[in-house]
Amino acid sequence: MFFYGQILGIHGHFYKHSEPVTMMWTLIITILSMSGSGMGWTYQYSNKTMNWTEAREWCWTNNYTDMVAIQNNQENDYLVSILLDRTKAPYYWIGIRKINGSWTWIGTNGTWAPNESWAPNEPNDKLNDEFCVEIYVNKANKDNHGKWNDDKCSKEKHPVCYKVVTCGEPIPPHHGRIMNCSGPHGKTSFNSSCTFRCLEGFNLSGSPEVRCNSSGLWDAKEPICAALECKPFFVPDGVVNCSGANLTVNTTCQLSCVAGILLASPEVSCTVNGVWTEVWTEVWADDIWRRVRVLSGWRPVCASNNISISTSHYGLYIEPSYDFCLATPWVSQGK
């Protein structure tokens, strides 16, 4: 895949290290691919020389991801601009070597190695044993400056390492949890993402996923989990006493009438779906309940004790009194 890049910034500082010969620059580069993804790195090199295998181990020992993996010409040029200029060999090992006949970046498994990146007449593979690559940093030699050369892996040169930018550990929301964190370079490294989920009875507010960007920051704040609430309701000519000030999940409400009969169950609860439990009970005179439901619009109501019973050729016909107060709507469950 072809990559192009833009340098975001550089911190021009020298940092102390356990080895006095070590010098490090911290910089952030964003490399955007055709698909829009990116990479964020920091770089380090050492003034100490070592063979290619030792150079890779040195990167690991110093908590860097691997030897530098160059993605395009712009990154190559920038890397050369921050490395110490050297008037002669040894130069710098980079993280590309020949594997099964192909030049491969060992940190990324990339194969970017265009002809223009190599010094004149390189790679030449003298004696068929030049399987590692150095980068020339010598401003006095314009033909070779910033170019690559294949060389014996046993030779000693300066290592150049990279480290993936990382973000801090995301914080799981209260009443929720982090479902998964994953990425190409680690769980909280650049381009990794974390997903969130709320516990039952809570709604996720905010982005359900955050991604670590090239600045070492998550691209969004961690979401919050807000308790689901059932809609408030009223019983005309009645009383509603609830167990909490907010009608959140598991809140229970006691229903009663100031006078008359409560045509509903005496208690309702707010379910994990944010709706009230069924308010109707089928324990007395099914036909009465059916008719009250139709007349009331499925609302809990208080009714008088006046109930008329008549006969028809079907048998007894029970008709409830129409002495209902239905001024205030029952709003739970959209009814």
From TrEMBL:
<feature type="transmembrane region" description="Helical">
    <location>
        <begin position="23"/>
        <end position="43"/>
    </location>
</feature>
<dbReference type="GO" id="GO:0005886">
    <property type="term" value="C:plasma membrane"/>
</dbReference>
<dbReference type="InterPro" id="IPR001304">
    <property type="entry name" value="C-type_lectin-like"/>
</dbReference>
<keyword id="KW-1133">Transmembrane helix</keyword>
<keyword id="KW-0732">Signal</keyword>
<dbReference type="InterPro" id="IPR035976">
    <property type="entry name" value="Sushi/SCR/CCP_sf"/>
</dbReference>
<keyword id="KW-0768">Sushi</keyword>
<dbReference type="InterPro" id="IPR000436">
    <property type="entry name" value="Sushi_SCR_CCP_dom"/>
</dbReference>
<dbReference type="InterPro" id="IPR016187">
    <property type="entry name" value="CTDL_fold"/>
</dbReference>
<dbReference type="GO" id="GO:0007155">
    <property type="term" value="P:cell adhesion"/>
</dbReference>
<feature type="domain" description="C-type lectin">
    <location>
        <begin position="38"/>
        <end position="162"/>
    </location>
</feature>
<keyword id="KW-0812">Transmembrane</keyword>
<protein>
    <recommendedName>
        <fullName>Selectin E</fullName>
    </recommendedName>
</protein>
<dbReference type="InterPro" id="IPR002396">
    <property type="entry name" value="Selectin_superfamily"/>
</dbReference>
<keyword id="KW-0472">Membrane</keyword>
<feature type="domain" description="Sushi">
    <location>
        <begin position="165"/>
        <end position="227"/>
    </location>
</feature>
<feature type="disulfide bond">
    <location>
        <begin position="198"/>
        <end position="225"/>
    </location>
</feature>
<dbReference type="Pfam" id="PF00084">
    <property type="entry name" value="Sushi"/>
</dbReference>
<keyword id="KW-0106">Calcium</keyword>
<keyword id="KW-1015">Disulfide bond</keyword>
<keyword id="KW-0130">Cell adhesion</keyword>
<dbReference type="GO" id="GO:0046872">
    <property type="term" value="F:metal ion binding"/>
</dbReference>
<dbReference type="InterPro" id="IPR016186">
    <property type="entry name" value="C-type_lectin-like/link_sf"/>
</dbReference>
<keyword id="KW-1003">Cell membrane</keyword>
<keyword id="KW-0245">EGF-like domain</keyword>
<keyword id="KW-0479">Metal-binding</keyword>
<dbReference type="Pfam" id="PF00059">
    <property type="entry name" value="Lectin_C"/>
</dbReference>
